């Protein structure tokens, strides 16, 4: 949902939500770590931070309406997909699911793709892992995998890029000041661009085997 006349901005360790119409701060939060990236998806805000000493990178999830910090974990996500219940993260051939509410691990599994990194897609309410060779459906409750056909009307095996409203990518780059930056986040923090349509899932289909 797009929120008019509101922007998010960071000053060192402070994240603020600002009403541009009334020129006032709605809330501000001290994350106690240097902010290196901010991404908003509807009512959720992902904030990546680095410790004061430059050791350890973190991800926090905040409520956009209130500024409440829902959780903070010592991890930076490269590519994620979000549902109402879970944050799914692909790291090579591993798929991890975290609780949106708590940040705690729901499951972590090997995707069984041996020679290529799979891609992740949420179509309807079904979660898919796919490559040029095969398509798997992920049971969101327990992480079990089942080989299936592509959903009707879409050939996932020939799809090179698929982005939905619950998906975003955060690609880390080196910067002179903090050592870490986030493509797409550092230029304009937050703004009204909700929906997360600026990214795509990670991993190519190079190689054979599957």
| Total strand segments | 18
User: What radius of gyration results from the CA coordinates?
Assistant: 18 Å
- Tell the overall outline: elongated
Largest sheet: 5 strands, antiparallel
Arithmetic mean of pLDDT: 78
Return residue spans where pLDDT drops below 50 for at least 5 consecutive residues: 169-209
Distance between the termini: 39 Å
Helix content: under 10%
Biggest sheet strand line-up: 11-10-9-8-16
Q: Your description of this structure?
A:
The chain has strands at residues 6-11, 14-19, 24-30, 34-41, 44-50, 57-63, 69-73, 79-82, 86-91, 94-99, 105-110, 119-123, 126-130, 135-138, 145-147, 167-169, 172-173, 181-182. Helix content is 0%, strand content 44%. The strands form five sheets. It has a five-stranded antiparallel beta sheet, with no helix packed on it. It has a four-stranded antiparallel beta sheet with strand order 4-5-6-7, with no helix packed on it. With 210 residues, the chain is mainly β. A hairpin with a 4-residue loop joins strand 2 and strand 3. The N and C termini lie far apart (39 Å). 30% of the residues are buried. Mean pLDDT is 78; it is low at 169-209.
